[in-house]
Design a protein that fits this description.
By secondary structure, the protein is mainly α. It has one domain: 30s Ribosomal Protein S18. It contains three helices and no strands. The longest helix is centred in the C-terminal third of the chain and has 16 residues.
Length: about 70
């Protein structure tokens, strides 16, 4: 059985940079988790990374946690 993208399964169109739940896609050190860890397809992983970078730029998420 193939591992499916969880965003595709839940029909998530795009990640919102204002969503406080984006922090679950960050490691304890504040780095963006890999596709293997997030179980996202390449398209959604790019959208997620862009949303996290926007949130960091606007100081909604920290660049580092430690």
């Amino acid at each position: 059985m193939r591992n499916r993208c969880i965003a595709c399964q839940n029909r998530i169109i795009d990640f919102d940079y204002k969503d406080p739940g984006l922090s679950r896609y960050l490691s304890p050190w504040g780095r963006i988790r890999t596709r293997k860890e997030t179980r996202l397809c390449a398209k959604h992983q790019r959208n997620l990374a862009q949303a996290i970078k926007r949130a960091r730029y606007l100081a909604l998420l920290p660049y580092t946690n430690k």
